[in-house]
Design goal:
With 226 residues, the chain is mostly helical. The protein is 66% helix and 2% strand. The chain folds into 2 domains: 112 residues, Orthogonal Bundle (Rna Polymerase Sigma Factor, Chain: A); 77 residues, Winged helix-like DNA-binding domain superfamily/Winged helix DNA-binding domain (Arc Repressor Mutant, subunit A). The protein has a two-stranded antiparallel ribbon with strand order 1-2. The longest helix has 23 residues. The two termini are 16 Å apart.
């Protein structure tokens, strides 16, 4: 029997489509290579639908098993990662349907999560978890505003938080209305950049090392022979 770890190191540069062909031809051990390549992506996409970590890993495992069972359906002209992600999304959506949560967070026409992340409902009707999320969003926004240069922060506070008009702000700061408009626009752009930088941090929702190894081991242990 070949040493799997040394085999994976040796074969790491093989394109996904070729790996799929070889798995279908009987080299089942190479499926581990596909899993390790796409664990992070699959985790993050399922994490965008489900929140419980144990359920996320269970959904990932099921997605990999279903992908293995349907591997013969994969078309080489497509990206394997895209094909796998769709299976992962279907798995997550199936779980949401079972809980009756599908219609509450999804846009049926688009078939993906509605981007209403910053809609903050009445705190009285919110559960503790949602209240905590609202608090975290509020703190992130406050920190981002605090980090704006002073000349933009003041404009933003007066226009957006205090809801003053351009004319009123111009009078307060002894600026022209056109200058207020320019600074207000720039303040919003800087704020958007700051919040976006937080949202695309490559370290968030990481799925690596021991968690990756454990999931791979679970799936590989139950894969049927071809």
């Amino acid at each position: 029997m070949r040493d799997v770890s040394s085999l994976l190191v040796k074969e790491h540069s093989i394109p996904d489509a070729e790996v799929v062909e070889r798995v279908l031809a009987g080299e089942k051990e190479l499926y581990e290579l596909l899993m390790r390549r796409h664990n992070q992506k699959l985790y993050r996409v399922i994490r965008s639908y489900l929140k419980d970590e144990a359920e996320i890993e269970d959904a990932m495992q099921n997605a990999y098993l279903k992908a293995y069972e349907k591997l013969y359906q994969f078309k080489a002209e497509a990206q394997f990662s895209t094909w796998l992600v769709r299976i992962g999304i279907n798995e997550a959506l199936g779980r949401l349907r079972e809980k009756g949560k599908y219609t509450s967070i999804l846009s049926p026409e688009l078939g993906h999560l509605a981007l209403d992340v910053l809609q903050l409902p009445d705190a009285i009707s919110m559960n503790p978890e949602n209240k905590a999320i609202q608090k975290e969003v509020k703190l992130l926004l406050e920190k981002a505003i605090d980090n704006l240069p002073a000349k933009y922060k003041t404009i933003y506070m007066l226009r957006e938080i205090e809801e003053m008009s351009n004319t009123e702000v111009a009078a307060c700061l002894n600026l022209s209305e056109s200058n207020v408009k320019v600074r207000h626009h720039r303040a919003k752009a800087l704020l958007k950049e700051s919040l976006y930088a937080l949202s695309v941090n490559k370290d968030v929702f990481a799925f690596g090392y021991r968690r990756c190894d454990a999931l791979v081991a679970k799936v590989m242990a139950v894969l049927p022979e071809r």
